[in-house]
Structures are given as structure tokens and as C-alpha cells.
Amino acid sequence: MKVKMLSWNPDNYVRETKLDLQRVPRNYDPTLHPFEVPREHVRALNATKLERVFAKPFLASLDGHRDGVNCLAKHPKNLATVLSGACNGEVRIWNLTQRNCIRTIQAHEGFVRGICTRFCGNSFFTVGDDKTVKQWKMDGPGYGEEEEPLHTILGKTVYTGIDHHWKEAVFASCGQQVDIWDEQRTNPICSMTWGFDSISSVKFNPVETFLLGSCASDRNIVLYDMRQATPLKKVILDMRTNTICWNPMEAFSFTAANEDYNLYTFDMRALDTPVMVHMDHVSAVLDVDYSPTGKEFVSASFDKSIRIFPVDKSQSREVYHTKRMQHVIRVKWTSNSKYIMCGSDEMNIRLWKANASEKLGVLTSREKAAKDYNQKLKEKFQHYPHIKRIARHRHLPKSIYSQIQEQRIMKEARRRKEVNHIKHSKPGSVPIVSEKKKHIVAVVK
Amino acid sequence: MNVNRVAESLLALSQQEELVDLPKNCPLSENEDEGDSDGERKHQKLLEAISSLDGKNRQKLAERSEASLKVSEFNVSSEGSGEKLVLADLLEPVKTSSTLATVKKQLNRVKSKKVVELPLNKEKIEQIHREVAFGKTSQVLSKWDPIVLKNQQAEQLAFPLGKEQPAIAAIEHALSGWKARTPLEQEIFNLLHKNKQPVTDPLLTPMEKASLRAMSLEEAKMHRAELQRARALQSYYEAKARREKKIKSKKYHKVMKKGKARKASKELEQLQKVNPTVALEELEKFENARMMERMSLKHQNSGKWAKSKAIMAKYDLEARQAMQEQLAKNKELTQKLQVASEIEEEEGGTEEVEELLVPHVVNEVQMNVDGPNPWMLRSCTSDTREPATQEDPEQLPEPATHEVSESEGERPVAEEEILLRDFEERRSLRKRSELNQDAEPAGIQETKDSSSQEVLSELRALSQKLKENHQSRKQKASSEGTVSQVQREEPAPEEEAPLLLQRPERVQTLEELEELGKEDCFQNKELPRPVLEGQQSERTPNNRPDAPEEKKEKEQLIDVQNLLTTQSPSVRSLAVPTTIEELEDEEERDQRQMIKEAFAGDDVIRNFLKEKREAVEASKPKDVDLTLPGWGDWGGVGLKPSTKKRCQFLKAPEGPPRKDKNLPNVIISEKRNIHAAAHQVQVLPYPFTHHRQFERTIQTPVGSTWNTQRAFQKLTTPKVVTKPGHIIKPIKAEDVGYRSSSRSELSVIQWNPKRITTRHNKELKKNSVG
Q: Which segments carry the WD repeats (chain A) (predicted)?
């Protein structure tokens, strides 16, 4: 008798280790797997829904300050350490993993206007309303020692901001003028002025480190070159710019947070037209910070919310708010690009996830594959109306919501008026100004 | 010497004067109004000349009376001598002394030098400086353009960008500033020293070194690989043995055992040839087994199992077989083995034994295997089976005939109905042919005639048929047996006939049938046809809707579809004289004829109708094959899902009625589906330039259901990848292969705006442009 047996090659089904998945032979014949588009559409829809379901961005609130948080700084070497200065002159150092304050310093009398860390991470600088610049050690004082700054520089005027060079022992402060200091000296190595007005913030370019940008209250943004000790160019906008932030991946682009509810991304070589106008806030934008990947940035606003914008989009992709969060004064994106911190009026520092629905912690390879696939599907079907509607849906507090409606109506009315004006005047006599150019008053050489 | 010294000092002084004086002397403002002052001066001279005409030719010394612009700060007025102060005037006294020739030369050289320009004002200078600095900076920045572009277009960006080498300090460095303090540490150090553990690099004891030398890495690897392979093989075999042991099938084990026995015997044969002594030992083993069997008689019918089987053997065929097998086994075991000398005989014997041992079925196969062609085998078996299949039809037809005879009672009524239906069918057919012919308006009358003729002929044919039927019924009543016989033979050819009926050119076949009917050679041939037709219509559901439609067509007196083609029936009122009508008709006909001749090529109406028909056809939902192979039955290559299933899933949904159903001269496109529109993308998204491009991206699936693992991973790579817990630093020039801006450049330069002059200004401008 002949016995017929099914013979299997063990290579096709035996897994190498117990932890491996069982091997499943697959037939990729397309006729066996019909309806690929509808099936993927459904998957994309589900992924989008789940993204909204799991969108819980708020992580922690660090409380301890006894006045509004006026400035924030990241530690350059340590992800878990954050520094903050308050309106009562108090500086606190926080540990994010433990979510507690590890050190408190009464640094200044009056506001702590600015805080920045040295690139090595061993010390940090603060400026305050008491016309002083102080350098502090990052580690606390030893047992029995007093809490004292390493150096104190007494200035003639109030300093409103400070930033440290990314590579060298040089820092810049701003107030009446932009001063560049050597850490070892008590006098600035050079002071740069252009016009007479108080300068609210100064920022070093992280890529081409000799470049500086500052914004003054006479509505302008001024760029400086530290090597030649000269200002480079000035652009005057409609309203005051509160802060600027350089893109850490693109040497020439920076974003300005403006009082007219908008943010402007500039290419510093062509200041007459911003590359992008980001408009979603409904009140003055107070601070902006780039993601270390340079693809997105976060902005803090007076309208009690923070928003995340892609660099190349004019609309925000995310808005964060809480009932208790008041006017957000400072915002920072952590240097691993995963989290966002914001310091607000009501004395708290809040920690958010940069991707609202992201799962924290280590992912298994399968989880990772599923995440990537879902992301891809969402991207692929993002234009479909139902998916778009779900993905774009956000709950907003009533104040912001009603403001948005109101401003939409205003904008529409303005647009209509403009169109009518053009329509009823001699063709060519009324110039059509693009939205980008509308907000630029002048560029001064 | 003295004179020389004096001359040199004078020269130096004059040079100084020149240097200080010249720039002051010719500022732009004074140069500009030189003409004016010249005029004034001339005027004054004229006045003086007039005054000197009095006779007192006195020289008036230049004296300052009031503050004026013209006053030189050295109080050297040029007015006295007449013209501008020139260097040559000052050198006048020197001319006489020949010793000062060198000085003169030098002075002449000084004279030839150009005037230094005036510096710009501070604002202007600052602006120029800024512009130049900006130009330089933007030049420096533009080197980042390609990198930024590359990063923007990159499929994937992995952060942090630069590969950071983890700084691991060598152990020597770590140890250098450290001493063993605690007793534990000291003990450990002692141990290390005892084993001659070197503290510095390389960190290997002599023992380790020796072991390293003993076996090279490759050898060790090979050795390990071999061991692994052996282990793997062993585990495989173990697993296989375990699996085989688990198999419960007795048949399988039996077969296996037999196979083994056969193998053993073969080996024995070979052994006898190669190594007779070993073979003898083997034989002894067999002998032993035989003895054991003989002693125990294990395989005879004395066992418990054998007894039970013996009881069952009466009724059960399998039991009987099992018994036989056991006995065979017994025989085999107890048989005395022949010695090597009688190999050939033994071979025959073994074969016999085998034949005895193996069950019948296998026997057959083996016999067949002996035959030359294995394919003949199957045909043989099929031959054997054929009689059975042939028997079946013999059994079946009897009930069939019974049925036929039983159903004959109901026939007459049915037949009449069928005939009526036949008639209707023909009528509808005729109508259709009429429609076709209507397109040619000229031939209407003729067709009408022909159609009337047709009707007549049909009627005739039908009446004949009815007669025939009656006759046939009579015949049937008389000889039922013969009819049944005929019918029994008929079905095979008749099976094919219905296929013909379905074709569009049924007219011909009908005519043929009529002719056949007229011929009246074989009356009964007509009989089963309608029945079959009925069956057929039942069988094929596709056909079913045709019948009601045909009925509908009959009922509809005015076909909406044909409104365009059918001539509106001209209502003839009796009051109108016929002659005029005829005239008009003639005129019309002429006109029509002319138009027809003019537009002989294009038949617009028919084209339109055709177009509309096509549009309707295109918009009709097509049958979609939704059968999923492998669901509910076997699937695979060459296998088709069952007809039942195909019927179940081959459905086209009935769409809503067309909007232009009742509008004969309009085509309303129904391509846009309102229900689907809500789910569709309305505007082409940004990066796409054509809708087809977008569609293509949507239609290529991403999931692992449709793609291989590799492709799936490639398709779903995220755009930005970050390492958890790593700080992402800003991009550095060194990361992308650029030289970072040097330290010397970074030093802060103080600049003096006073130095810059208009000439510099021009140069700077050139730079800024370039």
C-alpha cells in the first residue's frame, strides 16, 4: 500500500525562537485580497478616530512658584532639568522625571526678566529688574555654604532679556541696547544699537552662532552680526514682536511671535516677505519655540492656549488648553522633541506631550509597525472629508471659540470690502497686496 | 651743512603746510562757490584800479576788518599778489640757491599728489557698513540652502543627526586616580594580582592568551557551528521519532514495519555478498525470532484479540482480513529462512510471501506496476467502473418515462398555452423586425405588407400545428409505449435544441420549424420542445425577465422609446380634400427626398438613439463577481466556485430609474453619484498636479495584507525618527561636511567710522554689489 503524506518543510513554519511570531505563509495574489481601497479607508478612519480617542496631551503640572512664571530655560545636557524664573525674583530648578522642585533661589528683586543656561550645563545666567546680571552654579551649594551667585554684574539700565552663545563663553543681553559680554569681564565687549527703544528679547542663532536677532517695542526686528559688531537689517512690522526663535535646522530662518495674533516665519535674507504667516491665535502671541527637529514650533498666547504649527503650514495642527491655565507667557519644546513645557500667569509650569495621542514608553516592534502603518494611512486619506473632519475636530473653550467666530466675520468683512474696492475702481489703480506682504511696513537697510 | 639743515627744515615745514593746508583749502563747498568769489574779487580789483587812478598809486595791504568766509586761517591772503597761493610762489626765494635742488625736486613731487576726499557722515557710513555685513552674512548663509532643501525632501530624517561616539574612558584612566581603600577592594585587588591580571591594556591573563592561541577564532566558530548543527539534527530526529510514535494508525505502523523488514532483508542480501559472517549473525537473529514465535505462538489464533476477531470474522470483512494477516505473519515468522545458495528461489518465495502478506488492494497495484504502462491501470479501473455507470441510466429512465406518461394528462391545456405563447413571441419578433425596418421610411409600406403576409402564414402554420397536436394526442393514446420509446431516444438531441432558441435570429429557426411542421414527417418531434422550453426558461434566470418584457412590449401601444422613429400618424380628416393632401404629401416627399439626398451619410436620429442606448447600457450597474474563492468550499488554481454560489453572488443591484427614461430626445448623464459624493475628495490636494496621480496613490495599498514585509516596512517608514532619551542638538556645519566659521572671524572687531572716506564708500559699494 502506498501511503500519501503531506510533507512540510520545517523551514517554512518552524520559528527560530519561542519568542518569534509563528510563521504564516502568505499569498499576495491581489485577487485573493480584494477591496484594498475601501478596507484601507476604513482602517484609516479607525486610526483617525483612535487618535482622537487617545489624545490626552496633558502630563503634569509643576507648582511651587509664588508668582507668575516669567521665563523658562532648558538644561543643555540633561533632559530632566528645567529652570524657571518668576515675577517675584524667584528662580526654581525642576526635575521633570520626579516632577518636583529640586532647588529654589531668590535671585533678584522684582521680576526675573530672563534666564539662560551655559552651553556646558554647569552654570546659568539670570537678569532681573534690579539691573543686575547674575551667574549661578547649576549644582546647589554644599552643606553650610550660602546660596550666592558666581558673578554679579551691575548694569546702568534694566536688562529685559539674556541669551548665551551656543559654543563660546559669550552672552548677550538686551535692554536699551544689545550688549555682548565676555563671561570674564564686567563690561560688555560691544554694544549695538539702532534707534532708541527698549529691546524685549535677544536670541543667538544656534547654527551660525555669530548671528543674533532681537525685537524691540518700536515694532521692529533687528538682526546683528557679532563678528562685525554691527546690526545687519531691520524689518518693521504692523505691530510689536514679542519674541523670535531661530530654526535649529535651518540657519537662515526664524519665527517671530507678534502682537497681531500672528506668527511670521522669515528667511533672514529676504525680510520683505515672510515665508509663512501662521494665523490661528485669537490674541497676542507671547512666545515661540522650535522643536529641535526644526519641523514644527510651539507658540504661547495671551488667549490662554498654546498651539503647535508645522513650519510650512499657516494653520496650527494642535491646540492645548486647560481650564486653569491662564495667559501663557513662556513655552519651551524639550530637546528630545517629545514634550512641551509652558509657564503661565497662574504660577504653574505645565508639561504636555508634543504628539497628543502618542503612547509613551518603549514600544514593541509590532506596536511600532502598527503605529507607523496607522500614521501612513492617516496621511494617505487625510483629504477625505469624513476623515478630515474627525482629524481636525478640537474642543475649544468658549472664549476662544467665540473669538474665532468673531474674527472670522471681521476678516471676511475686511476681505469683502477690499474686493469691492478693487471691483469699483479703475482696474490697476488699487494694488492687490498679498496676505504675506500686508503686515510688513518696511525693511530698513 | 648749516644751509642744508635749514633747507631741510624748511622743506619739512612746507610739506606740513601742504598736508594741513590742502585739504582745508579745497573742501567741496569752497570749490563750488569759487566762481562766485572770483567774480567778486575781480569786481574789487576793478574798484581798486579805479581808485588808484587818482595818482596815489599806493599798495593796499590786506587787512582784516570783519569776519568773513574768505579769510585764511594762516592769514595768508592771496589777494595781495593777485591770484591763488601756489607752492611755486613760496619756492621763489629758494630758486636762486643751487644747493637746494634736491629739495625742489621733492617739493615738485609733493605738488603732483592728489587731494584727499572728505569723509561721509556717520549715518551714511553705518548704513554702508550694515549693507556690506549683510551681504557677507547672506553669502555665508546661502551655503545652507542645499542642506535645507535636502532635509525638506528627505524620505526620512533620523535625529540626532551626528553619530555621537559614546565616550568610554579606558580602564587605566579610570584606575589612575583611584585606590583600593576598603578591605573588600583590597582583597579583590590581591586576587587580581595573584592571577596576574594586567591592569593596563590588553586586559588578558596569560591563561586567556594561551587559550586564545590554542584555537583560532575561525576554528572555534566552525567547531561551534558543527556542534550546533549536530544538536539541531538530533533534536529534529527526536522530534520526528516522537511524532511518529504518536501516530495511532495501525495501518501506518504496519506499513512502516513491513518497509523496515524489506529493507532489512535487502541489506542482508548485500551483507551476504560483502560480509558473510555478519550476515550469518543477522540470520541467527531471524532464527531466534522464529524460535520465539514458535515457542509463544503469539501470532496464532490463541490470543485474546485473535479469539475476539475469530468471532467477529463471520460478519466483519475487516476482522477476517486482520485474522488472515495475522496468520500470514505467523507463517512468515515461523518459516525457516533459506541459506544464501538458494537466492533465486528465495526471491520468488519472498515475492510470494509479499503477495500473501500485503492486502488485496496493494496487491492489485503491484500487479499493475508490473505492467508496462502505469497509465493503463487507471483506464482498467475506469473500465471496471463503467458497467456500474452504464447500469444507472438503465435504472433511471423507467421512472422518467412514468413521469412523462403521468404528465400527459395535463398536456392538452399546457400545449394550447404554449402555442399561444409561441404566437405571441412571433408577434413580438415581427414587431421588432418592423422597428428595424421603420428606420427606412421609404420601405414602410412594403414591410407592412410583408408583415401582414407573415401573420397570415403564421396563422396558417399554427392552425396546422393544432391539428397535428390533436392527431398526435390520438396517436399517443393508442400507443403509449412507442411514444415513451421515442421520447427516451429523443432527449439527447433535444438537449441541444434550446440553445438555438435563444439566439436573436430565431425567425429563421421558427420558419424552419414551420417548414418542419408543414412537412409533417415526424409529428411528435414538436411535442417535447415547448416543455423543454419551459424548463429552460426555469433553468436560466437570465432569460426570465425577457418574457415579461416581451409582454410589456405587447401591451404598450405607444412605445416611449420609439417616439422619435415612428412617424406620427397623420390624422386624416375627411373634410380636407384628398387631392391637396396628396399634393402636399408629394411636396413633402420631395423635400424629404432632397434632405435625404443631402444628408445621405449621417442618420442623426439613429445615431442619437444609438448613443443613448449606449449611455443607458454604460450606466447600468454591471454584474460584479463577488464570489470569494475558498469560502465554503475548496479554492485554488483550476477550481471554480460552484454555480450555486456564483448565482448567489453574481448580482447587479437595481439602480434607481433613469431621469431621461421618459424623455426620448434627451440624454441625462448619471455619472455623478450623489451618495458617494459625500465621501469623495472634492478638490485636488496640494502636492498633486492631476487627479489621476492622486487616484493612483490612493489605489496603491500600503498594508501588509497586500505587500511583502519588506515593502510594507519601506512604505510605512515615518518621516521623522527620534531616539528616545537623546538630546537633539542643532545642526552643525561639521555634521554636513562644511567648515564651521573660524575663530578668527568670530573675534569682535572694533571699527572706526572716521577713517572711512568716499573712496572707501565706493569700494564698499562695489563689494556689496558683487
A: 62-104, 278-319, 321-362
A304 within a domain of the structure (yes/no) = yes
Q: Which of B702, B746, B751 sits opposite A210 (nearest CB)?
A: B746
CATH of the domain at A315: 2.130.10.10
**Chain A hits for B235, Cβ within 8 Å:** none
Q: Tell whether A1 is covered by a domain.
A: no
Is the Cβ pair B701, A10 closer than 8 Å?
no
Strands A58-63 and A230-237: unpaired
* Closest residue by Cα to residue A135 from A88, A175, A91: A91
| Nearest CA among A204, A196, A203 for reference residue A220 | A196
Q: Which of B137, B161, B249, B675 to mutate to test the interface with A (most CBs of A within 10 A)?
A: B137
Provide the chain B residues 616-645 that lie in CB contact (below 8 A) with chain A: 628-630
User: Minimal CA–CA distance to A205: which of A161, A250, A270?
Assistant: A250
Number of CB pairs < 8 Å for A and B?
186
Print the domain residue range for A297.
238-356+440-445
Among all residues of chain B, which has the CA nearest to that of A383? B681
Longest Cα–Cα distance in chain B: 187
In a domain, A288, yes or no: yes
pLDDT over 90 (residue A299): yes
pLDDT tens profile A108-163: 999 999 999 999 999 999 999 999 999 999 988 888 788 899 999 999 899 999 99
Task: Please answer yes or no on whether A1 and B251 come within 8 Å at the CB atom.
Answer: yes
| Chain A interface includes B360 (CB < 8 A) | no
Judged by CB atoms closer than 8 Å, whether chains meet at B365 and A250 is answered as: no
Domain membership of residue A178 (yes or no) is no
In a 13 Å sphere around the CA of B148, the CA atoms on its Cβ side amount to: 18
The share of chain A scoring above pLDDT 70, in percent, equals 100
Which of A22-31, A166-175, B1-10, B25-34 has the highest mean predicted lDDT (pLDDT)?
Answer: A166-175
Highest average pLDDT, of B164-173, B303-312, B593-602, B609-618, comes from B609-618
Query: What tens digit of pLDDT does each residue of B122-140 get?
Result: 889 999 999 999 999 999 8
More confident residue, B76 or B387: B76
B383, pLDDT greater than 70: no
Residues of A in contact with B137 (CB under 8 A): 208, 211, 225, 232
User: A303-312, A332-341, B410-419: lowest mean pLDDT where?
Assistant: B410-419
**Least confident span in A65-69, B672-676, B678-682:** B672-676
- Residue among B706, B117, B150 at smallest CA distance from A38: B706
- What nine digits make up the cell of B476? 399517443
- The CB density around residue A243, as the number of other CB atoms within 10 Å, is 26
Q: How many domains does chain A have?
A: 1
Task: Tell which B residues from 444 to 503 touch A, by Cβ distance under 8 Å.
Answer: none
pLDDT tens readout for residues B493-544: 344 333 343 444 444 444 454 554 454 444 444 444 444 444 444 444 444 4
Name which of A282-286, B73-77, B112-116 the model is least confident about: B73-77
If pLDDT is split at 50, 70 and 90, which confidence band does B638 have?
confident
Q: How far is B640 from B629, CA to CA, in rounded Å? A: 8
Full DSSP string of B493-536: HHHHHHHHHTSS-HHHHHHHHHHHHHHTS-GGGTTHHHHHHHHH
Asked if residue B134 lies in contact with residue A232, where contact means CB atoms within 8 angstroms, the answer is yes
Q: Which of A404, A68, A444 is nearest to A236 (CA)?
A: A444
Distances (CA, A) of B683 to B360, B690, B695, B698: 77, 11, 12, 15
